[in-house]
Amino acid sequence: MTLNRAALLALLAGLMFAPVAEAKKDKADPAAETMTEVPEAPTIEDTGVPAFDAVFAEVSGIHGSLDEARTRLAAANNSVVMALKLPADASLDDALSELKDKAGGDIAVIMNGTVPTLSASNALPEDISAAIEAVNAAVQEVAQAQESLAALPDQTAALVEQVKAFRTQLNPTLMVESGLERSEMPRIASTTKKNVEATVATHARIMAVGEELARFMDTMKDFGAGLASE
Known about the structure:
mainly alpha; 2 domains; 230 residues
């Protein structure tokens, strides 16, 4: 059966606009707002429409930045644990407790803006000095990761507005301009729908990664505050 232009465009609108409404519903769910587990990066597929794919490539880039931030966070945690020669599955809290026990009262904390930096008030064994250096390097890594994500919420909001407009832009004229066959419109609409859904969901992933980074920094600040109060 051949769809006429009006029927085809109605089908496309139904395919493409549903995820935006669904995403808004999910966002309003209190359980979703309190969830701190970081969702996996969604799959962004090429639609074949250059104007669409250029925007979706930016969305993929944002998720790449989030993945990089998480990699830096994991490396920061691991470097502290390894410096103290603890088991690989030891927590950051365990590592800091070990550092405090080994260094006694010979660690001081200095705040550089909002970033805590540890220093030795006396000469310490080489392994403890190395651990302090590892902690400071880890804090710097996470602080830089936080800076790299600062602009992402606004960038994502702008992209969401762009992709929401795609529902009115996918039409036979655009297909011709993109060198595509009209028969491909349903496939492109379906792929675009998934990509729009992924774009709308990006904000929640940014927030979750941001919370991970913030928890690391809060742990370090609490550790520093505990040292300062003794």
